[in-house]
Amino acid sequence: MRRALRLAVLAALLLLIGFSSPSPGKAAELQCAVCGQAITGRYLEEDGRAYHEACYARTRAARCAVCGEAIMGPRIESEGKSYHEKCYREAVLPRCAVCGQLIEGTYLKEGGKSYHPQCHRTKSAKCAVCGEPLEGSFLADPWGNPFHARHGEKILCPFCSRVMAVSTTGGSVISSASGMRICRLCDRRGVSGRGKAETSLERVRQRMADLFPVPEGSFAWELVDRERLDSLLTRGPHARNELGLTVGISQRRGREESKRIRVYLLSGLPDWLFDGVAAHEMAHVWQNLRRLEDLPLDKAEGSAELASYLVLDRGGTPEGRIKIQEMESSDDPAYGIGFRKAMKVSMRGQSMTRLHRVLEGEKGWPDRP
Predict the structure, then answer these.
(1) Alpha carbon of 241 to those of 60, 130, 189, 234: distances in Å?
(2) What is the CA radius of gyration of the chain?
(3) What's the pLDDT band for 7 if we cut at 50, 70, 90?
């Protein structure tokens, strides 16, 4: 079925006419149409009436159907609802099941998935693994690569979720860094040397400054292989096959108490995923620094997944977008549902201070996303 998606990007309905105090002659007559108080600084005007920005946002502005915040600038109207442009692109626009890119024009739907017309035309009708024709039901990876169900989901790369076949990733290898079977694309982008890892960690730490700020030198870190990481995970209430682990150890000498924090990261992660995992673990470092080690699992892991989501989103890689889609659809009580609760509390990362307060004991953690 072919559909056309028409977006009405509306110009701002408000005319900003003051960046400073009104002229002396106009000050006496300029009053806010909502609160009736005098306007002495920046204000908005609509239909001949003046408003304080806050008053207009509270009483007159359209509300975004995604984040619920007032829309004070350009907006998109679709099916009777208003959206911030960013919220519409991230939450409403479909993505092509082949290339993973946003679809902003005519597109096709098939089997519940959306496609750019060109991507749909070039979509293989043969199994990406064995090359045999696809007959009846079959599976497809998040990138749109189809394969026979008999090959099983182990054929998917544990990092980027692509089918590990010559036609899609150049095949697979056993990573010398992690000991895992991964696709050749991810192996080529692996972070395994300490120098490269240190540079990436510092970049992520700086990106986290407005999310979960972590002081420089507040934790030690180590790259480990899959076997070593799994052995550490089995010592606590952690799920196997995680890609990182943060451990806080408290020590008391007399009346003085100190704390050491150590982060373990799976060696060989592709650079885009390394950033996301590092962000997740740094959120746990922040929790340890705030003495929040005993948070309920949905709060602890959900907020850490939010940090990963935001860093992956800022990275803007196709692989990161696929990982974000997996996070958004996960039904895991902590990593999926807890993540979406953290998204709700933080207003999709726009109000991290509010999330911090809730994590530190203030009411507001929702019963459901």
Answers:
(1) 50, 28, 20, 10
(2) 25
(3) very low
